[in-house]
Amino acid sequence: QVQLVESGGGLVQAGGSMRLSCAASGSTSEIKAMAWFRQAPGKEREFVAAASWVSSSTYYGDFVTGRFKVSKDNAKNTIYLQMNGLKPEDTAVYYCAADRRPFYPGRSYSNEIVYAFWGQGTQVTVSS
User: Fold this and answer.
1) 120 Cα distance to chain centroid
2) Which of 53, 71, 105, 120 is the most buried (most CB within 10 A)?
3) Is pLDDT at 64 greater than 90 in this prediction?
4) What is the pLDDT of residues 45-58, one digit of tens each?
5) Element (H, E) at 114
């Protein structure tokens, strides 16, 4: 099993920046992919970004438009999400996810059902 713990959420003004972290523990050697999703009140969970644990590949949701950057530290079993130029519509609970299977052509990285492990989420609130 893999446990995921997110941190770094909070309240920020529009235009500000925030960095989220997600630390994995447990059977971390099994991790091949990690990702960030978010869910705003009354909306479905949405893919934000993903990173391969076995290559340098990263992927982003269509809405990101260069404002967010995902990075990782394999040695620390941690994935990060640097968010810049935050907007009130970025307000959501941000979730970290991980899976034992690597990304490969034809395998979705943006569908939440492909991830076996999930964190509890961290609230990000952007005030206008």
Assistant:
1) 12
2) 53
3) no
4) 999 999 999 999 99
5) none
Kindly report, residue by residue over 69-110, the tens digit of the pLDDT.
999 999 999 999 999 999 999 999 999 999 999 988 888 899
Structure tokens at 65: 């438009």
Name which of 50, 8, 9 is nearest 31 in CA terms: 50
Q: What is the DSSP letter of 12?
A: E
Determine contact, residues 68/84, Cβ cutoff 8 Å: yes
Distances (CA, A) of 98 to 11, 116, 120, 127: 26, 6, 13, 30
* Distance (Å, whole) CA 124 – CA 116: 23
- What is the DSSP secondary-structure string of 20-79? EEEEEEESGGG--EEEEEEE-TTS--EEEEEEESSSS-EEE-TT-TTSEEEEEEGGGTEE
DSSP 8-state secondary structure symbol assigned to residue 103: P
**CA 97 to the chain's CA centroid:** 7
